[in-house]
Task: inverse folding
């Protein structure tokens, strides 16, 4: 009896957790959002050696602006992300598109830099891009 009850509860919990959230972020929007999150984190890690309170506040402002641009709350984003985590094939497709878009953006930055070397600037992100050429 205990075993049957445990199985029933497990099935019930699993079925509840895999339901689509009411405000599920589309895969296309998730690609754009995750791309921007990667850029925010790259700037944070490349430009700042320390993780001071000021850096954390700047990063938080960037996330807040990003979610506002997509009319999302952080909880809506997290619910959607958790849903995609439970559907690894979809999440894999999303991240493959994120990587393709980031690689294309890097390619375009390199092209711009070839024609105008001062356009990227001398911050650590620009230097990292230049090293990758």
Result:
């Amino acid at each position: 009896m205990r075993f049957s009850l445990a199985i029933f509860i497990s099935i019930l919990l699993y079925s509840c957790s895999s339901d689509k959230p009411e405000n599920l972020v589309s895969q296309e929007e998730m690609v754009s959002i995750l791309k921007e999150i990667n850029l925010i984190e790259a700037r944070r890690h490349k430009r700042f050696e320390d993780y001071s309170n000021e850096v954390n506040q700047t990063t938080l402002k960037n996330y807040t602006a990003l979610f506002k641009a997509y009319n999302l709350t952080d909880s809506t984003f997290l619910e959607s992300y958790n849903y995609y985590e439970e559907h690894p094939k979809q999440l894999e497709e999303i991240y493959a598109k994120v990587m393709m878009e980031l690689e294309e953006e890097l390619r375009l930055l390199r092209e711009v830099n070839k024609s105008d070397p001062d356009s990227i600037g001398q911050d650590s992100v620009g230097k990292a891009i230049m090293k990758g050429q």
Remarks:
- Helices lie at 2-17, 27-47, 53-69, 74-85, 88-115, 124-131.
- The mean pLDDT is 78.
